[in-house]
Amino acid sequence: MLVFVIPLKSPQVSKSWERVSKLFERCIKSVCNQTSTDFHALVVCHEKPKIEFTHPHITYITVDFPAAKETNPVAQGNTDKGRKLLKGLIYAQQFSPTHTMAVDADDCVSKNLTEFIKQNPNSNGWFINKGYKYQEGSQYIYLKRSDFNKMCGTCNILRYDLNNFPQPAEYNRGYGYYKYYIDHAQVRDILTQKAKAIKPLPFAGAVYILGTGEHLFYDSTKLGFSIFNRRFLNPSIRDEFGLYNL
């Protein structure tokens, strides 16, 4: 089984809680659009979002973590995200997953992930090397042909035992304590050094959504792709990733 873990920011730090909820609703619909039912989605949040969509494979985990003590706003946001990821990943044990995947709450994922993992239950895991990036509201989508995992946090699928949980897990620590769960670009190299290498996913696995107005870190230059990587956002891509206009 594949368990998706989705950390959701709180209303208190959102520019628009309504906007965050709409982005999340699209994300969770995408996650639940899998071609195989052998998955579960864990949403870790301070407050359950007000959305219409429900699914029997979703569990909401509410937390009461205090505000991070980091002086840097980005580090504060990452600390909150790290705490929620760790909480969700440990909770996932209840579902006996073969693999887990961290998903940012505004991204979309391929509907083929769960079926692929089901067919490869013993693999160390995969990193998404190829994926898409999309600016909200555009009629185009851009193919990232390599190193997608260095750009987007929705990128690593790990065998459950490779999550490297601290013993015991703590939730009142600073940013550095949660780095393994936050620094998505480093996971591939860390596991390679431990002789537990993960492979590139053999298909485009996710869509990195930009221009939402709610990014912790956003750099518009990340959309500077060649016209040769531009695609019309056609019905096939929309269907595979559950990507619809908000």
From TrEMBL:
Source organism, top-level taxon: Bacteria
Name this protein carries in UniProt: Glycosyltransferase 2-like domain-containing protein
